[in-house]
Amino acid sequence: MIRGVVSAAGVPTIVVAIAGKDWLATIDTGFNGDLELPEELREVFHARYVGRATATRAGDQTVTEDVFIVDFPFDGRMMRAEATFVSGALILIGTHLLRDYVLHVDFVGKTLLLERQ
Q1: Strand 61-74 and strand 77-86: pairing?
Q2: What b/e string do you get for 46-79 counting C-beta neighbours within 10 Å, with b at 16 or more?
Q3: Which H or E element spans position 3?
Q4: Where is 40: in which H helix or E strand?
Q5: How far apart are CA 23 and CA 15, in angstroms?
Q6: Residue 79 is inside which H or E element, if any?
Q7: In angstroms, rounded to a whole number, what is the distance separating the alpha carbons of residues 3 and 1?
Q8: Which domains does the chain have, with CATH numbers?
């Protein structure tokens, strides 16, 4: 089980420990992939290039990105996931990574709960 918060701006967020540092991660229900990670984590994860993919983002924007395989520490286990890398320090967690979870977001109470099924 993972607990998180809903920020004052209404963003569902959890904290993920990676390489001895806590990273903020947004649960992005509009992202149907696995992960978007900060560029500075590429070497930490020993990211393995698998190819390029085209994605459609909000506003019908199409982007083509390099896709990598990483082993991501999540909920006490390592999960093999597809990731893209971007500048910045925020992690985005998409719905495909959460395929074995039930997501409870309480916007009024400002809480988030992820339960593995």
Answers
A1: antiparallel
A2: ebeeeeeeeeeeeeeeeeeeebbbbebebeeeee
A3: strand 2-6
A4: none
A5: 6
A6: strand 77-86
A7: 7
A8: 2-116 (2.40.70.10)
Strand-strand pairing, 91-93 and 21-27: parallel
How many residues are present in the chain? 117
Predicted TM-score (pTM) of the model is 0.93
Q: Longest C-alpha distance within the chain, in Å? A: 41
Query: Given this model, what pLDDT does residue 116 score?
Result: 97
5 DSSP β-pair partners = 13, 111
79 Cα distance to chain centroid: 12
Tell me whether residue 41 is exposed, middle or buried, using C-beta atoms within 10 angstroms of its C-beta: 0 to 12, 13 to 18, 19 or more: buried
In this predicted model, what pLDDT tens digit does every residue of 28-71 receive, in sequence order? Answer: 998 999 999 999 999 999 999 999 988 877 778 888 999 999 99
Distances in whole angstroms, Cα of residue 31 to Cα of each of 20, 21, 87, 104: 27, 24, 18, 17
